[in-house]
Model the fold of this input.
Amino acid sequence: MVSNSSTFINVDNNSELIRADRDSYVTDGKEIVKPLLSDGWENVFDDPNKLFRGGVDDVRLAYQKYCLKTGYRVTKVKNDRERIKKYVGRHTCGAGVKLRSPKVSKKLFNDATQTFERLFIAIGACIEGYRLCRPMIFVDATFLTGRFRGTLMAATCLNGNQGFYPLAFALVPGEDVDNWDWFMCNLSNIVDDRPITFMSDRHEGLLRAIPKHFPTSHHGYCYYHLQGNLPIRKSDEKYKEVMGTLVRAFFTGCRFGQTTSSVAESFNNWIRKDKRLPACALVDMIRLRVMELMNERREMSLLMDPEKLTPTYEALLKEHIQIGRVWNVTQSSAYEYEIHSPRSHTVDLLNKTCTCQRWRVYGFPCSHATTAISAKGDRYVDYIEDYFKVTNFQQLYSIAIRPIPNYNRPEQYLPEDTIFPPHPRVPPGRPKGNRIKNAWEKARKSVRCSNCKKKTHHNKATCTVIPSYP
Done:
């Protein structure tokens, strides 16, 4: 469904394992229904006394929304400029004609300029799989380098093996406050109710939009972006002290050990070769890349042991166990232990906490915790979140993205159905200057090759002449 001010596309029918009721999901044993942006469109004419303040244009727009939601074609028998005299909400005569593909009017685009404005896309399989990922979302924007420019906004998550998991993306004219607000509004419609930790580069639009649309969530700032903006140089005598304070502050406030927006940068680099494509080709190429990625990781998950953790965290667990093997343990209560490492720490297995704070920060047992678990004689996996287990990883990538055939696309389009590309917007920042070179600068300077002894534009390393030896 495409809209000028609130565009949302949910390709739910691409998910193989999603239930028939695609508008709901299960949380803690209860089914919660998430509202869609098109909810209520079928009831725009249910009240004969309803007032359309926009006049006939408002009525026509409501009629188009009704047809898109219900699939029916409405025929105008008589025009009444004052009111709708009769509304039949349920058809029992059998004469109703359902459209296979309701026509989308340009009223649901920018009708002033007839140009493409912005588009938000979230694949149904990715939406369904988000509930199996940690509630941490990396948001970032990257400039498109194609003919029509624009900006690609993306929301990316982490899977249980520290790999990036694409959740949603959008095409917008530029990165500004209004577009970030629109993006976060659409993003709030596809996530569950878990408190989310966002990681970003502190763009002004995100500083406003995240508290507005996610009031119970947290917003973390990328360490490298803040470090680069500090008004201090390496030559300053206080530089190391300031950097040490910054690192300690980030470690205290970070979640799942993430302090940078590198995951979002990984997604941007992943589609780097496709940034020159037009909008439609870019969207379809990203869909194909996500489909291929999901299938590759699905096959990789089948080779993993369901009784273990994912390879990354299985190796981390073994490392923590090895570190704590030489430490002494004193039991305080049924679930409390004091670990005598170089610095003594208290571990509470019931609340999953350690005074070193690493268990709380990373969401994964630290070396002190693994030592306490070993002393108690319990299994390590019983104290580890499901996000890091192979069973969760296999379930995440078992949701397939179905192919989208194009055999039913129209062979030709009418001139009035044409949507023009967006107007290019100048990116923020000072433009790069291109110095006009003089005539003598344009010619490459020739050098004498030490191999062939000729004055050319190559040297010994790139020379193709085979040297002769006496």
